[in-house]
Amino acid sequence: MKQMRALSIANGTIITPQGAVDGILRCEAGAISQVGGDVPPSENEGTVDAKGQLIVPGIVDLGVFAIDKPAFHFGGITRAALMPDDSPPLDHPARIRFVAQSGKPNFWVHPLAAATQGLAGEQLAEIAMMREAGAKAIATGRKWIGNSGVMLRLLQYAAMLEMVVVTHAEDADIVGNAAATAGEMATRLGLPSAPREAETLALARDIALAEMSGAQIHARQVTTRAGLELVRQAKTRGVAVTAGVTPAHFMLSDLALGDYRTFTRLSPPLRDEDDRQAVVEAIGDGTIDVISSGHDPRGPEDKNLPFSDAAPGMAGAETLLPMTLTLVRDGVIDMARAFDLLARNPARLLGVEAGSLQEGYEADVALLDPEAPWVVDSQEMAAAAGNTPFDRQPVQGRVTMLWKGGVRVDL
After folding, report:
1. Per DSSP, what are the bridge partners of residue 243?
2. What are the two backbone dihedrals, phi and then psi, of residue 160, each rounded to the nearest 5 degrees?
3. How far apart are CA 222 and CA 190, in angstroms?
């Protein structure tokens, strides 16, 4: 699907990394050719009146577990990096190649190469071959690689290939089958729990090995005050580490577990209020680099179970944008920073020229009404399953138009 006719979007506010810009956004041959200014469109190009809305980059969702195009399009997402936890895992070039083509023409899927064969954490996979097949980064999957020797060899290999390693920061031997974070709520509810130090220990090891090897790591979710302080200190030392989080961990604490609703059964589990506040602070001060959806739709067979037996995960694609906009309304970040977290930074980690409204970048563009009210409804979601912890919550912010490579996408 190629853009056949130039497109101009006028009468909106363009959100760039430098801030808001007035004027026209022009897209030609699938790329952005003009940002701002008042050069009028020519007769042979299409024009869209933004009617005062925000003109923003398409979101780049880093680290999803399923591809639901209708849900992603609803949420203004034009690209997603797919975790390797498929069946079978994405540990072979042929699987990577197939997945990289699977969303086209109106959605780009960027597969993440499995770090180890079968995601077993033992033997390194054929990462260089998977990079040639289209893998944009490497990922350890849902679990942490417990063998430090294997992890060091992976990071040394990744450094040589100049690929980012996306890690899961939970020590599996400590977590076990825990469904909650150790503390007052887990005790009251009688849930199997693990201490928050499971994250800290895993993260400290991974940061130390990254420092040794010179590799770049991205901790997909950092959810505790101590873990965020480790990232903060590592960045000060010049370690190539970035951190991400999903909206659940800055919007909710473990108080949300009170009614045993399995939509709040997540990995890592919800933390206490102090950790939630620490995540918000880390978003505000730049410690956290990426906000992603963690999109992981789970049907009744996985969620209609006792809390500790239910599968962790949430359908997050449709709520990623409005939940992030709550941080803007609360004054934690501004709109430009919001789209750094949602689009620009994840695109940079994947090495793709997208996620930012600047000349020469791919014309993945959305119109956003940041004040549009709606109510999250698990029964009406476009995702394969509606397991959202934000069910029935009123939100604001909705994409009204979307373009992939300058071509209009139906919402």
Report:
1. 219
2. -65, -35
3. 25
Query: And the tokens for 40?
Result: 């009028």
CA distance 313 to 303: 9
The CA distance from 138 to 127, in Å, is: 8
Within 10 Å of residue 384's Cβ, how many Cβ atoms? 16
What SS3 state is found at 166?
A: strand
User: 3-state class of 341 per DSSP?
Assistant: helix
Residue 289's contacts (CB-CB under 8 Å, 6 or more residues apart) are 218, 242, 243, 244, 341, 345
Considering the entire predicted model, what is its pTM?
0.96
In this structure, what DSSP letter does residue 218 have?
Answer: E
Which residue do the tokens 């509606």 mark? Answer: 386
Q: What is the pLDDT of residues 283-332, one digit of tens each?
A: 999 999 999 999 999 999 999 999 999 999 999 999 999 999 999 999 99
* DSSP string across 96-157: HHHHHHTTTTT-EEEEEEESBGGG-SSSB--HHHHHHHT--EEE-TTS----HHHHHHHHHH
Report d(CA 200, CA 149) in Å as an integer. Answer: 19
Q: Is-contact 358 336, C-beta < 8 A? A: no
> Could you report the per-residue pLDDT of 191-219, keeping only the tens digit for each?
999 999 999 999 999 999 999 999 999 99
